[in-house]
Structure formats: C-alpha cells, structure tokens
Write a structure and sequence with these properties.
The complex is a heterodimer of chains A (501) and B (313).
Chain A lengths: L16 E4 L9 E10 L11 E10 L11 E5 L5 E2 L4 E2 L1 E4 L24 E7 H4 L12 E4 H5 L5 E2 L14 E8 H7 L3 H4 L3 E6 L13 E7 L8 E9 L18 E14 L6 H7 L7 E4 L6 H5 L1 H8 L3 E6 L5 E6 L3 E2 L27 E3 L4 E3 L1 H15 L1 H37 L8 H13 L10 H9 L6 H10 L3 H10 L1
Parallel strand pairs in A: 5-15, 10-15
Antiparallel strand pairs in A: 1-12, 2-3, 4-7, 7-13, 8-14, 9-11, 11-15, 12-13, 14-15, 17-18, 20-21
Chain B lengths: L6 H17 L9 H11 L6 H4 L10 E7 L1 H12 L6 H29 L14 E7 L1 H5 L4 E6 L2 E2 L2 E8 L2 E7 L4 E5 L6 E3 L1 E7 L2 E6 L23 E4 L14 H11 L12 H8 E2 L3 E5 L19
Antiparallel strand pairs in B: 1-2, 2-6, 3-4, 3-7, 5-6, 7-13, 8-12, 9-10, 10-11
The chains are: A alpha+beta (501), B alpha+beta (313).
C-alpha cells in the first residue's frame, strides 16, 4: 500500500485486487501561487547582484458542489432494491480514483489530513428522513446559491469554507439541512473519516471476480452505519468540506440547531427483515434437533442391530412399507427410491450379461422376492410403474414414442418386402436377355413385351368390311364393293338403292 | 404385390433385420431429440413424485442434507416403464427388447447435456457418460432464504458437472452431479466485494459484532487470507455500535473497531503495527461465504452395496 499514483491496472496480476489507503492527486484543489526568483551575479557596474521576482497565481479546480453521474461507478446496496443488506455498510465506487482526496477537508489547511476524504456517506433510517415521519431529522434538499450555502441564516451551521470564499449568487448548489445533534450522532469522527475511504486497483482479466466487471483504479467511500432492518433506508452522499470541526464528538460554539451540508447525491433501498447469516444457518444444520448431514438412510435402533437382514436393508437405503397384495393380504415389503446411500452396479452394463440385462416388459418382472424371509422388494417395480405413468401422462411423449417405434418398424418391414420384390423381379428378368434396371415394373413390362411379340395376332376389321365380305357375299359386285369402300358409302343405303332399281 | 412375397419369409427377414440393427450392422433407431430429452429428464427424476425419492420422512428430516448415489438400475426401470407405453403388438415388444440398450445409451449421453440444453448454454464437456451419478437433497430454511445458492462439487480439485439443480419445494433443493465428489461447497449467492460485519451470535458483552481478520501481505500472512490460530480457529476482531442517550442505532464506532483490530492482529501482520484505511478495508471485506463438506471428515464414508444382484422372479 503506497500513495504513488497508478493508472494502469496491468500492474496488478490478473484476478487480483490491490488496496490503497488513498491515491493523492499531485496537488489538492486550492489556489496556489507560483513564485520564481532569479539572482544575477557578477553584473559589471553594479554594486550588488540584482534580483528579479515573478509571481503567478493558479487555481486547481475539481468537483466541489456537484458530482457528475459519470463519476460514479457503482452503488451498494443497489438503489431501489430489496434485500438482505442488514449487516453491510453502504459504499459508493467512483471512477475517478483520487476523487475523495482531491480536496482537503479543511480548505484552510490543504497539506494536513491528506488521507482524509472530503466526502462521506450518511445512512438515514425510514423514520429519520421520510416526509411523513413525525421524527424527521432532515429538510428536503433545496437548490440555493453558494452565497446562501455559507450564509444560511440564523440557527443553521454553515460549512467553514474559509474567509476567502464569499460565494456567488449565480453559482447554484444543492444543500440539505440536518438536525445538528442527530448529524453529530451519526457522522463519523474526523479521525475516523480516513478509514472510510480507500482506493483499489482491479484486474479482472476477462473474468468477473466478486461481481466486479471493470478493470482499473477506483476510489470508494464507505458509510459508518448499517442499514435499518425491515425498512427503507436512504444513503446521503455529502461534502464534509469545511465541517472538519463539526463532526462527531466536536463541540460547537454558538447556538445552532441545524447544519447545512452540500448534497452530492442520495439513493434509497429497502432492507428485508431477514438478517441471519448464511454460515450460521449452515452450521446450525449440524446442531442437535436438526437433521445434520449424512447419507440418505434410516437410522438403526437396537432392535434393528440384532437383525442382520433388517440392518443390511436399512444400511443400503431400504425402508419397510405396508403393501396391499392383490389377493387382499396386507404385508410388509421393502422399498428403495433412486437415491441410495451406497453405489450400485448397473445391471445393463455388467460384462457377464454382455450389456444385455433388461428390459422389463411388465412391472411384475421387476418384483423381487426373498424366499428366505418371505418379503417382497418393490423398488424396481415401483420405478417401472411410475415411469409408465409419467409417460402416459404426457400425451406428446407417448404419441411420439409410439410413432417413432412404428415408423422404424415400418421401415424395417418395407425393407424386407423390398428385398422379396427384388428377388421376384430378378427371377422374372433373369430369363430374358435384356439387362435393365432391376425393378418389378420394368421386369413385368419386359416379360410381357418379350414373350408375346412373336404371336400372329388377328388384325381387326371394320363393320363395313365385315358386312361387305361376310354378310353380303353375292349382292354387290367386286366393282361395286370397291366403289363403296373408296367413296366411303354406307353399304345398307347402297343395298336399298340397288333393290329399288 | 403382397402376393409376390412369402409371409413366412418376410417375418424372418424382419427379425434378421432387427438383429442386424441391434448388433450394429445396420443403423439402429436414433431417438429424436424431444424423446431423448424427455427420457433424460425422467432419469434425472423430473416429475417423479417426491414420495418415490424419499419414501419415509425420517430419511429427510427438517434442516438436513442427505447425500446419495443415484441407482442406475432404478433409472433403467423408469425408462423401461416409459417405453412400455403403446406396446400394442409383439412387433413393438420385439423392438423394445432389441433396442433397449441403445436407448439407455442415448439417454445416458443426453443426461450430460440436458442442463446446458435447458439453460441454452454450451455443454460443460466434462463428465463420464454412463458413469456414476451422485447428489444431495437439502431441506433447510437456507434454501428459501438464499435463492441463487451456488453448489460447487469437486473431485480432487476438479469441478464436477451439475446435471440437475432444482428446488422441489420452497425449502428443498435437489442437486445431481456426474461423478463422485470428495468435496461439496455450498456458496452463498455472490454479493460481490462489499463491506460488512457479523453480528455476535450468541450476543456477548462488550461488543456487538465481529469480523474475521485477514492477512495484509505482511509478516508471512498472505494478503486477503483469513488468519487462523494453531487450532484452526479464525481470528476475530470485535466492534460495537455507538451507544448513549439519544444515539441513533447502527452507527459503527469506527475508531474503537480500528483499535480492536490493530490490537488483535498478530505482531508483524500489519506494517509498523498500524492499521491504515486500505488495511481496514481488507478486514471489513465480506465476501460470499462457503460451507464445504468433505468426504472423510463430515462427508460420511460409504461402503459399496452388496445387495444389488437379486434374482428376477
């Protein structure tokens, strides 16, 4: 931990966080006078060595009455959230790594208390800040000019910003007036204040550590009061500049009932009622009266110890349950769920079975019976039944399972049929000479065309031809028959005409 | 075309085909993703009534953690039961008899990726398919009070993949992981690096809260590591709230706390025996708390079961 200025998080190893007491700016904000003196020696014709002086006034400025939101990196507890923040101190993280020390708390003595931040967090409980509360300790923040900041009127204690600071009517500042006695009770002491701010350099190296996802140097202010449980809380970020003698345990001269503070920001959150610690609760599990940690099995009593079978069964996670047999008999049977206190051998992956152990087609297959004791074991039959019931209760799954199985079987049957068909096609086509693609259609076509093409089929005659040759053998002459055919005449009409003649 | 095929021959061909597929000579049936995921969920006990997991309430009393192995035989029977749905003919039964092993295997590998599929994250890649599955069932107010509790099972320092992590009821957490861990850490939900204190439980005189002191990188105490004495007890600093008439509650006496811490720290643990603000911040840091359970100490030892090869009736 040093106070040297670091800007490069690379100086911190990946995944590391480095803490600094403070990161001091080279000069705190103030008015400075730069003076230069030059003495010229050995000047001829001069009795003494002439001296030349130069003075230059300069001002280092920085945030004072207003903080830019971009200066703030994160807030904890997160604004407007509800959570278990009861045992956490609120904090604010600034991007500007030297912001809390950029200004001296005592504007008159900028070189003193260098590690003391000029700002701080105040935690206010619900009853202390809500407008509806009768015990309200604060005023509503208001915007005033900076001259009103240092001259707030009777009874209000202003910050002591030095005699040089007069304020102006143009420059505006948000202020909050707090009950003085209350402020002193919740504010830190001057010497405590330096413990409530520090800086840190973070190198997360691409991996979020402790919820910090940004690399670099940050400064923090921590509150000194834990939030109130089961209520809303408000955190005020205020400037303590000029209030170095007004903090906790300082005695105030003069009659003041309120103190005026520069209001830099505020946020609210709610702390849930629950305030127990995680580890305390985890440790409580092992305390008497609670379950403790162990394997999932029933504890054995003395009677069980004497019965070797019962003891072994309980040791490996079985419980004895009432069993109503189908025949109406009531019996005690063993049952064990999938959660067992000792490793088991998986039947379907045992080498002696060649991985062929299973499946059970009925749940009755999975019932075990010990002839020695006459006790049934329903562990696996119950598993089978609940598996079936769950599958039946999900129509999509049951339907999907059925379709998947049916489709695969159909494809297998189709393949087998295809094989038969191809064999038939091959046997038909094999007798023929022509080689072509082997399928039933082509084979059948080629079978018919090859086998029947040499037959001398009857050629068909038209009705006219039949009539002229077969039915009227001697009526028409050859010349007349030819004429009828050539002129495409109806033979019956011709016959009629010929008879009339 | 039926007439061209011989029914008896067809039947034997179908059986031969199934046998070939079963032996891996022709492609076996591949479970569609939705069926595979459904069966994987089933084997990770999604939907299985709690009464089947914990048949006797004495197995899981209030405020308890029960570690377990998952019985693969039980899960196989569960799958058998689910596959028995819609078995209408001997063909369906033959199918189940032929391919149960392939189905078990596909479900086994789907188990490994189910959680990442559900969370739409990249699969962890580690974990032995078909290997041992263990886990615990945790019934405590902690489950209700700390949503987002993290579980970190490790085996020889290597993280084991979590296959399922679900709350069965508001105060019961079921966590299943692949492999047999030798250490399981219960980690408080991440709160980040913040500053806090631990109320004294039970209350004690002279102080209101304590914190666990950490090394500052001086005097052989590594920075940020909690300091323990020779008996493994963590060194504590004590502090109190401001008290007095009209004093609002909850204001930490920072000065007194600083004095207590710098007085309690072992000599040499802080530079020049003084606590600075950076050192104070390290002491106040309250990171997420962990409760580890290790095999051998408070993780109960296990003896392999001898009662698994019972005869089928």
């Amino acid at each position: 931990m040093s106070n040297s200025i670091i800007t490069d998080p690379g100086t911190v190893a990946a995944g590391d966080i480095q803490f600094f007491d403070s990161i001091q700016p080279p000069l705190k904000t103030d008015n400075y006078t730069l003076s230069a003196k030059q003495t010229i020696q050995n000047v001829v014709d001069s009795g003494d060595n002439p001296e030349y002086d130069a003075l230059k006034k300069l001002t280092i400025d920085g945030p004072r009455f207003v903080l830019q939101p971009s200066n703030i990196h994160s807030l904890f507890p997160p604004p407007n959230q509800v959570g278990n923040f009861a045992n956490f101190l609120p904090n604010i993280v600034f991007n500007d790594f030297s912001l809390p020390w950029s200004r001296a708390i005592d504007p008159g003595k900028t070189t003193q208390n260098e590690d003391t931040p000029w700002m701080g967090l105040l935690t206010l409980y619900e009853a202390e800040y809500l407008e509806t509360s009768s015990s309200r300790k604060i005023s509503t923040p208001q915007t005033v000019s900076t001259s009103q900041l240092v001259n707030p009127g009777a009874g209000v204690l202003p910050p002591d910003l030095g005699t040089e600071f007069k304020g102006s009517d143009d420059e505006k500042v948000t202020v909050i007036d707090i009950d003085l006695e209350y402020f002193q009770a919740i504010a830190p002491k001057l010497e405590e204040l330096k413990y409530l701010s520090h800086a840190r350099a973070v190198n997360t190296d691409g991996k979020v550590i402790l919820n910090m996802d940004a690399d670099g140097c940050f400064s923090l202010c921590i509150g000194n009061r834990v939030p109130g449980v089961g209520q809303r809380n408000m955190i005020l970020l205020v400037s303590f500049e000029g209030h170095q003698d007004h903090l906790n345990s300082a005695s105030i001269t003069g009659s003041f009932s309120k103190i005026r503070l520069v209001h830099l920001g505020s946020w609210e959150f709610t702390t849930s009622k629950f305030d127990r610690e995680f580890l305390t609760m985890m440790e409580a599990i092992c305390q008497p009266g609670n379950g403790g940690t162990s394997l999932i099995q029933l504890s054995t009593d003395q009677a069980t110890e004497k019965n070797a079978t019962a003891k072994e069964a309980l040791d490996i996670g079985y419980v004895a349950l009432q069993n109503k047999m189908r025949v109406g008999e009531n019996a005690t049977s063993w049952y064990r769920g999938p959660l067992v206190p000792s490793p088991t051998k998986r039947g379907s992956s045992q080498p002696q079975d060649g991985g062929n152990y299973g499946p059970y087609i009925y749940s009755d297959h999975a019932m075990h019976y010990d002839p020695g004791t006459g006790i049934f074991n329903h562990a696996y039959s119950a598993a089978w039944q609940i598996g079936r019931l769950l599958a039946l209760s999900d129509a999509t799954f049951a339907q999907g399972m059925f379709n998947w199985r049916a489709e695969y079987l159909k494809s297998i049957i189709n393949q087998a049929k295809q094989k038969k068909t191809q064999a038939a096609a091959a046997s038909i086509q094999g007798e023929m000479s022509g080689a072509g693609p082997l399928n039933l259609h082509a084979a059948t076509r080629s079978f018919f065309s090859d086998a029947f093409k040499k037959v001398d089929w009857d050629t068909l005659k038209t009705r006219k031809q039949k009539m002229l040759t077969d039915q009227f053998p001697a009526v028409f002459t050859e010349v007349e028959k030819k004429a009828i055919e050539e002129n495409d005449e109806d033979p019956l009409l011709k016959l009629h005409q010929k008879i009339k003649q | 075309m039926t007439s061209l095929t011989n029914r008896e021959n067809l039947h034997s061909d179908v059986v031969i085909k199934l046998a070939q597929a079963q032996a891996g000579e022709s492609p076996p049936p591949v479970l569609p993703d939705h069926l595979k995921d459904w069966l994987a969920q089933l084997t990770l006990l999604y939907g299985v009534p709690v009464e089947y997991l914990v048949p006797d309430i004495r197995l899981l009393p209030i405020e308890s953690i029960r570690f377990f192995y998952l019985d693969r035989n039980w899960l196989d029977r569960l799958v058998d039961g689910a596959m028995s749905v819609g078995v209408l003919s001997s063909a369906d039964a033959v199918f189940n008899l032929s391919f149960f092993k392939q189905i078990y295997d596909q479900v086994d590998s789907a188990q490994m990726t189910l959680r990442s599929t559900l969370r739409e994250a990249a699969p962890s890649g580690s974990g032995e398919v078909g290997g041992p599955i263990t886990g615990f069932i945790f019934r405590s107010q902690v489950v209700a009070d700390f949503p987002g509790i993290e579980i970190n099972p490790t085996q020889e320092g290597k993280a084991l993949p979590i296959l399922r992590m679900d709350t069965l009821s508001s105060n019961t957490l079921l966590c299943i992981f692949s492999g047999v861990p030798d250490k399981v850490e219960f980690i408080q939900p991440g709160e980040g690096l913040h500053f806090g204190l631990f109320p004294n439980d039970p209350p004690q005189d002279g102080s209101d809260f304590h914190l666990f002191l950490r090394g500052l990188g001086e005097g052989g105490y590594p920075a940020g590591v909690q300091i323990e004495d020779g008996h493994g007890t963590k060194l504590r600093g004590y502090g109190s709230f401001r008290s007095g008439n009209g004093q609002p509650a909850g204001v930490v006496d920072i000065g007194g706390l600083v004095n207590n811490i710098s007085g309690t720290l072992p000599s040499g643990a802080s530079k020049d025996g003084k606590l600075t603000s950076g050192g104070f911040a390290i002491q106040m840091t309250k990171t997420a708390q962990k409760q580890p359970y290790e095999s051998g100490s408070n993780f109960p030892p296990c003896t392999p079961s001898t009662n698994t090869d019972q005869e089928k009736l």
